[in-house]
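quick one, two chains, predict together pls
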Amino acid sequence: MAVSLQEKYELLGCIQCGRCTAGCPVSMRTYLNVRRVVYDGMTGVGPTDAKGRPEAWNCTTCSNCTERCPKGVKPMELIIGLRSAAIEKGRIEPTIRDALESTFKHGNPWGRIRDKRTEWADELSVPVAAEGEAVPFLFYVGCTPAYDPRAQSIAKALVALFAAAGVEYSTLGTDESCCGNEIRRMGEDGLFEMLVEGNRELFGGHEVGTIVTASPHCMNTFKNEYGEPTPDVVHYSQLLASLLEAGKLTFKGKVEKKVTFHDACFLGKHNGIYDEPREVLEQIPGVTFEEMDRSRERALCCEGGGGRMWLEATEERGERLAETRVKDAVELGADYLVTACPFCLMTLEDAVKTSGNEGKIEIIDLAELAAMAL
Amino acid sequence: MAEKSTSREQRLGVYVCHCGVNISHTVDVERVAEVAATLPGVALAKTYPYMCSDPGQNLICADIKEHDLTGVVVAACSPRMHEPTFRAALVSAGVNPYMFEMANIREQCSWIHDDKEAGTEKAIDLMRSAVARAGYLEGLTEREIDVTPEALVIGGGIAGIQAALDIAEAGFKVHLVEKEPSIGGRMAQLDKTFPTLDCSACILTPKMVDVSRHPNINLMTYSDIEDISGYVGSFTVTIRKRARYVDVDECTACGDCVDVCPVAVPNEFDEGLATRKAIYQSFPQAVPAAYVLNMDECLGTNPIACGKCLEACDKQCIDYDAKDEVVEIKVGTIIVATGMDIFDATEIGALGYGRYDDILTSLEFERLVSAGGPTGGELVRFSDREAPKSVVFLQCVGSRDATVGNEYCSRVCCMYTAKQAHLVREKLPDAEITVFYTDIRAFGKGFEEFYDRVRKERVIYRRGSVSEIYRRKGRLIVRGDDTLMGEPVEIEADMVVLAVGLVPRPETDGVASFLKLSKSSDRFLMEAHPKLRPVDTAVEGVFVAGCCQGPKDIPDAVAQAKAASSSAIAPMARGTVRMEAISAKVDEDMCSGCRICVSVCPYEAITYDEKDKVSRVNEALCKGCGTCGAACPSGAMSTIHFTSGQMRAQVLALIGGSDD
């Protein structure tokens, strides 16, 4: 007999206080009511997969519901479970299906072939580990910075920063495959497990010591979901902060701009990394840094996580959160809205256009900003 | 074996309890008794539905007399529950109470097993093991020790005040030690009290004055406990009376010194919402009614640096050269009433406390609405000194919340929030008042009625928790879930009050470590039994009162203080206490003087005699834990009533081995 949702996700601890819905960034924008989803699972009356509950696809897996639940219930995992159940029955949206298929075939969800994974580095000299070669320090680029024309500049900026700081590193070239963070959150457990297995084998084959990732999403799954033993994993903002502190990285240039910082959910809420990106920002000469009202653990989600890069909300009420975010930053008078996540970069940049703020503000990744000051 | 079994001369009675069906549903009690009857030294074995009942005990007494039993084994519940009961039965039948042994076949057997066959086998093993030990038991004599007819109360909040007054009224001397410059505690900070709306200060102040005037109370404020040693009847307490630099007896609290003091620091009594000087009185009704100078904040007593207060004091009661005074007192009993702290709301970053001026804790709100508070009781926002049009209260901040490690309900927040909502309505007839709650707990006398009244005063209760507070266009946005409506809501607020829960005070840890007190999983002090010994601790002669034991309201704290004081008075009134005859014993001929026992004893009960080069046990301090016996390399240390011979017999019977 199948295990009930109530048992599988330990829903009986729920006291229906509603803090999950209260903290859910999309609860005012879509019909997703996390408390209701938990209640239905607890009482066993609601749909058991996301097909019967399409609003489950609106979840961005920001983790507010789970981090803040006073009783230790994990509503986010329940929502992912509903998606898994739908996927198992083949009841999924075509865009999600394409992303999963592409990941299975080419190791990336963007529908691009494996050979093009290193295209971003064509003009650069980026070390690629030979087969079996030990890699004490691995730069894991990630699918989006590798393929997306806009996000590629994050990878390029990081390479420049590593060179300036004398960081010895290698990449895995075209052997690199998707980390699986978004795949797990779209609910494709089997594919996720396959990616974990493949990547663990790949890391093991190269005796990887430490991994630095361009995306907080990759860092999150490597760090929290790959099981033991796993190499040390850091996000590049942590590495830059420590390089600056050790005096190995210094900024010679100046960026005379007023900037504010958008905390990515997978950097902040999921992994508690709030200080390091700010430490980097504050050391860039010329930069005037000001916080937005909703920062750190109260930061507003950009709606780019949890597979939402491949799926629009099932229904829309009010403006996109990324637009709200851009408006907040414009109101602050910031020249740059800085983030440290390729998904945030893309959703926010899109929101600059859709909210009519072109020319008023620019979205920039922390790595790009740091590289400007070299 | 050093000890010889005396089982052949023993005539033991074995009694197996059904405990209704508690034991008999998984243990065949008749079979346990049948096996018992076959064991050497056992004169008779019986079962009975409730051994602890009067007829059950009478059965034992009658058998002792009729069959001339030398000892008794009861297979029933935990000895923690009924060992004293059966020991008393032995005494009434003229047998030494230490000739009794208990096998726990309930908690350790029937309650945790389903299989009756296996359960019966295990019960037989436990019984057999108890009978084996009983063969080695010896009659022991309990000692009586004198009780110093003085008590120590630690903490001068409402619980400590009440306990001290009750003991003093009973005719015993009480030392009341408070770390702050004044007694009064948390209750002194409150404006009004629920559900009666009594003015907190008005009902507290007379008690504080009673303390200061009572001839039997020695009040030591601005004082810290530095050490406690000893045992029930005879505790030695070291207290540091910190220098106040102001003569308490001479100071008339005229305030001339305050006027000239140039230092301004946040006022703790007002939760930092206002300032005070370096020389100050905690609050106008402080007891003792005298000033105190905080030397850490003082600019300096050198006339070039400052020295203004010294100049201003006509009565010359300021002494810059005053020194801390360390006193040592002897007391017979101790009441711990060290109180509580409030939850630090900055731990929940999403609520924005500490970031926005107009988000207050409930204790800050008390000071704000108090006539003696920073605004003279005027309810205004700190950001713009305007009266708020919309006030939102959040329940359960830092309570019932595993994310901050406080899983318990703080028991007072529902009602103090209702009271605070009422106070807002009283002061601001047109304000919108919203309370976000998860469950309303109005369980006390008059609580539900008060909650009814407050709702009817146009206080909107919305069922749901708040997850986040942020600012939009200058107003606070409270993002909650209205779970009854099934929709998230955003409420615009001018002021938000966080109903912060109660947490243990860090200072309690020091006292707890001196006295070896245990804590429950909620980190509050643990009582000896949650139902039947609610103010006792595991340490004889030490009692708890008030919030150091767990969150409670004023009536409960006072009731507990009264219970603790009556418990503390009992041994003092009797004049002596009986000590259980279980303690460590040194065989001085075998002791090599290595002093390992001295270093491992958790109760500092063992000292080394330099002259005779052996260890000596203070039987009054010894709790009979057996650590020294286990550590002693020469086998010189044993524990009376838990001798190696007794333990060996018990273990061998359990594992079915022989003595070879």
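The mean pLDDT of chain B is 94.
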